[in-house]
Write a structure and sequence with these properties.
Layout (H helix, E strand, L loop, with lengths): L1 H12 L6 H28 L10 E12 L8 E12 L11 E16 L4 E16 L5 E14 L10 E3 L2 E8 L5 E11 L11 E14 L3
Antiparallel strand pairs: 1-2, 1-9, 2-3, 3-4, 4-5, 5-6, 5-7, 7-8, 8-9
Length: about 220
């Protein structure tokens, strides 16, 4: 494994110097976009009050997130993604004390994937067909949750550079919904791993920590 990491790292770092300025120019509007989205979500949260996930309820959401690479894989890379979610709360409350909550199954379509790498910017799309979400019992307007999910990412350029254009995307998140009368918004911290699982010659992987923001609603058919 070690002899695979070294050539990949050398190849990727060889092109990074001429692309850092380009990455900085692209990040600035993305930061502004995330700031605007956060302001919008805060406005929505302050406008409405009360509503929560419960058994038989459906969830729809629009979300966006961005972050930075962390040790354990390819460095100096930044992901940005945005997508649509559908979920359904399948159970009533279970487990004791602070673990008490409800299980929800989710599916995400991710039409926007941008990975800012030292050598280039990779564009792609993906979907996460496996989302296991535990909604803890609400505390006032807050409905915290834990989530494990997995999916696949298709890109026009290799992610990481010189590896593969098809990757798998397991992730774990902790966040909370801020509940409203009709709509809610969410904020979460997500650990995202991008790896080709041996489909390519090299597989150094890309580990990132993201902040993800979303706005949506819970609803139930009568």
């Amino acid at each position: 494994m070690a002899n695979q990491r070294a050539p990949c790292t050398e190849l990727q770092n060889s092109k990074q110097s001429g692309n850092l300025n380009q990455m900085a120019r692209i990040r600035t509007p993305l930061c502004r976009l995330l700031s605007s989205l956060l302001f919008l979500l805060l406005s929505v949260a302050l406008t409405f009050s009360q509503a929560a996930p419960e058994e038989g309820v459906n969830e729809v959401q629009v979300w966006a997130g961005g972050g930075h690479s962390v040790p354990g894989g390819t460095s100096r890379s930044e992901p940005f993604n945005a997508g649509l979610r559908y979920g359904r709360v399948l159970t009533d409350t279970h487990l004791p004390w602070f673990l008490r909550g409800r299980f929800e199954y989710t599916v995400d379509l991710v039409p926007v994937y941008l990975i800012f790498q030292p050598a280039n910017t990779a564009y792609g799309w993906g979907f996460d067909p496996l989302g296991l979400k535990w909604n803890f019992v609400r505390r006032g307007r807050l409905s915290p949750y834990l989530e494990l999910s997995g999916g696949v990412l298709f890109s026009g350029k290799n992610i990481p550079t010189y590896t593969n254009d098809v990757n798998f995307t397991p992730s774990a998140a902790f966040g909370t919904h801020v509940l409203g009368k009709k709509y809610n918004w969410s904020v979460e911290l997500r650990y995202l791993h991008i790896s080709n699982a041996g489909l390519g010659l090299y597989n150094p992987g890309l580990n990132t920590v993201q902040v993800r923001l979303g706005v949506g609603r819970f609803w139930k058919r009568h």
